[in-house]
Sequence to fold (316 residues):
Amino acid sequence: MTDVTTLCGKRVFLTGGTGFIGRHLLDRLSAVGARVYAVSRGQQPDGSSGIQWYQANMADLPTTRTLLEAIQPHVIYHLASHVVGTRSTDAIVPTFQSNLMTTVNLLTVAQAVGCERFVLPGSLEEPSSGGADVVPSSPYAVTKWAGSAYARMFHALYQLPVVILRVFMVYGPAQRDVHKLIPYVIRSVLKGEVPTFSSGQRPIDWIYVDDVVDALLAAALAANLEGKTIDIGSGRAATVRSVVEKLVGLMGSDIHPLFGSRSDRPLEQVRVADTHAAEKLLGWTPKVSLDEGLRRTIAWYESLGQPVFSPAGRAR
Fold:
């Protein structure tokens, strides 16, 4: 594994700093002494030691240019994303603006300003190939697919040092979006409610958030990564149903989750990460097993008692 202490004193610019992965990454960057400049569209959090916060929207090109010209970052992490699985047409414009427009703006300005490394998370929801007959599965998936394509173009044509990490299904403590599967199940069980699902037969490669942060840190420093796309996952698949049942069992509940109450989403991506490239190029392998990761996640939610998040949602 790359020595992450070499990030000490580096100027690191990060979008999506208040998001699930962003919060975990900020903690690690601060711990190694990086000079962190974080941006969020919403209210800036209080009390983040050593972090310079900005409230801004990277979909605005002049704002993006002003920030990066002032900061002159060594490393850029573009984690901000509108993550939704819905196939509704209502998601098309928001995902385009939040995911693709921000990515193109940041790539454009980074190419002009310069940086040592630009780390862009991709998604398991992206199609696995660029063939003309490939159809992205959702508005979110097409924006991530197009964003990755732009990043590869910026490297090939303009030598921008971009690295794409195709991140699989991340879970772990402090995932506050109750529409996501694992928070939804844990909260339902804590409240004594029966969680409901579609068939639950989709196999998914689940990866613990601390492992993802390790990979993100390595991607900022490892040599000869520019232009590459690297899978970040466990290399194993577990169905939604098996994970739900495992959660209920680990929580010692006698609740019986209800499967098949809704239809499966069309065009779901089914794949597992190829972990060999990450091990070779990043010196990275996942450390936290699914069972251990779920135990840690349950413990975090249980420690909150009955937290007040956004209204309870239903996950697939």
